[in-house]
Input
Amino acid sequence: MTRIQPGWQGRFFEDFAVGDVYEHPLGRTVTETDNTWFTLLTMNTNQAHFNAQVGESSEFGRMLVASPLTIAIAIGQSVTDTTQNAFANLGLDGLRLTAPVYAGDTLWSESIVLATRESRSRPEAGIVTIRTRTINQDGAEVLTFERTFYVHRRGAERATPPRPRARTPLTLAGRKEEAR
Output
């Protein structure tokens, strides 16, 4: 008989404790294409992000990755461990871009829980504040910020979105035998 095993559901308010550190599992190598598309998408017209000649003549000697892209990657890397069950960001504070990021850099993020408190207006949720920092492949910090968010309590009515079920169950039937 096939058993459906639940996947990682993320943390709920009750799972956060001040001082806990989450080393987010996925690194992300930023490519020149990522940077170009992001500048086009966001209408960032600073040529330091997409004009090699301008980048080479700058004090950095090459094009920079647009800092909002670095911020977006850092926040995205933290979601699986921190805000998978959040329903609202409340603030982003103390944002510091501490070193340049270039195409080809691989970014890794980690977060520490700074504060938790029950919500006075939403009994089905709590408020959590974390500090996230992002490092590159050499371990150099490139970004740090604090983020505060509303997160559901375990069992809250709106915590788990309804998931459709397939019309037919997923089974082992029809599996090809391994070559001997």
